[in-house]
Each structure stands twice: as C-alpha cells, then as structure tokens.
Amino acid sequence: MRFDIITCLPGLLDGPFNDSILKRAREKKLVEIHVHDLRDFAMKKHRQVDDYAYGGGAGMVLMIEPINGCIKKLKGERSYDEIIYMSPDGYLFNQREANKLSMKKNIIIICGHYKGVDERVREHLITREISIGDYVMSGGELAAAVVVDAVTRLIPGVLSDESSALTDSFQDNLVAPPVYTRPADFEGMEVPAILLSGNQKTIEAWRFEKAVERTKKRRPDMLDEE
Question: Do the first three CATH levels of 2-152 and 167-224 match, i.e. the same topology?
Fold first, then answer.
C-alpha cells in the first residue's frame, strides 16, 4: 500500500512515520509513505503556495495551482484509489472507515493549512474529505498521520499478532474490555479471578460482557449504530 501526502510543512511528519509500527511496516515494505513538499510545485517566485482570500477576511488560503501540479505529477506515475483532503468539516474518521481504506492500494492525502484550500480543490480534485474530530488544528499534517497510522496497522503482516487488530476498540462497535498483566496482586488490587482461571470460553464471555458494559457507559452512541 502507498500513501502520498501533500503538505506545505513536511517537517511536521518526520517523527510519526519514522518510529514504532509505521517504521517497521516501511522497513518490511508493507507500506510506502511519501511526503511531498507543496512548495516544490509553487507557481510563483519565493516558493509561494498561499495567497489572500478573494473578498477579504483574515487568514491565507492554499492555492489550487501547486496542489493540482503535485496531484497531476503523481497521477501521471500511477493510478489512485482515493484523493483525500483532511478537513475539520469532512466525514468523521472512524474504525469502519479505516477498515475500508486498508483495502485500497494507492492513496493521496492533502493537508490543509492556514485558512484552508481554494474551494476548487475540494470541488474538483479530491474524492473525499475526512475529519478526525470536531475541533480545529493548525494544519492537516497530524490528522493525516492519524489516518495513516490507523490504516497501516490493519494491513496484513504489519502487526506481529494479526489477531490483535481484530480485537481493538471499535472493530465490533464496542470499546475494548479491561486488560491486566502481572502482578496478579498489586498492593491489594487484584486481577479478576476469572482471567486467571485458564478457561478461555468463560474468559471470552467475561470480556464481551465487560466490553458491552463499558460501551453502554462511555459510548452508548456506538450501540445505536447497529
């Protein structure tokens, strides 16, 4: 799987993609992540990629020309399943969406910045808009990293235990149940005895019960989606 990320601040993405699971996935060549500096496609001098908004108002707007130039170059090299714009008013990203995207082969992600992008980018160049939550960030770079991380860990071979991803929160419209590890007794705080019983059938039943209980308490909206 390949991600091409278009940004005017590529340095913001150095850390997230070069450590932990994403680093190992790249080393195994299970995923390719390429970050493209939008300023390399600037149409004006001084590598300018933004300008004032028509009609006035605060904030600068990313221009369509460099974004189109970068997309055109990438599409000339391969076909893309999705061209995504990270936007605070886009479709709310969730585990179901991550599962769908993990089945794709090539994805472009455009990171907005400043006051956003020229509306013509949204109208004519992209296939979908994604938001990671109802709040505004300084740019779409960290949001893009969230999407790439969530999708990459679903690719077969990325996790050492592939069943781990299948038991994550949200995979079955439930949050994850409580988990414990050694010691079994820490200063009088004990691990539930059922988890020490060795009876896998009753353990799984307990986990499901606790997952439903926790979902009802913390995220009842998820149960309404069924």
Answer: no
CATH class given for the domain over 2-152: alpha beta
Give domain limits for the chain.
Answer: 2-152, 167-224
The angle formed by the CA atoms of residues 140, 146 and 149, to the nearest 5 degrees, is 135
For residue 51, what are the β-bridge partners? 61
Q: Which fold has domain 167-224?
A: Trp Operon Repressor; Chain A (1.10.1270)
User: What pTM does this model have?
Assistant: 0.86
Predicted confidence pLDDT, tens digits, the chain (226 residues) = 999 999 999 999 988 998 999 999 999 999 999 999 999 999 877 899 999 999 988 889 999 999 999 999 999 999 999 999 999 899 999 999 999 999 999 999 999 988 899 999 999 999 999 999 999 898 999 999 999 999 999 999 999 766 555 555 566 788 889 999 999 999 999 999 999 999 999 999 999 999 999 999 999 988 876 5
- Show Cβ contacts of residue 86 under 8 Å, excluding neighbours closer than 6 positions: 109, 110, 111, 112, 129, 130, 131, 132, 140, 143, 144, 147
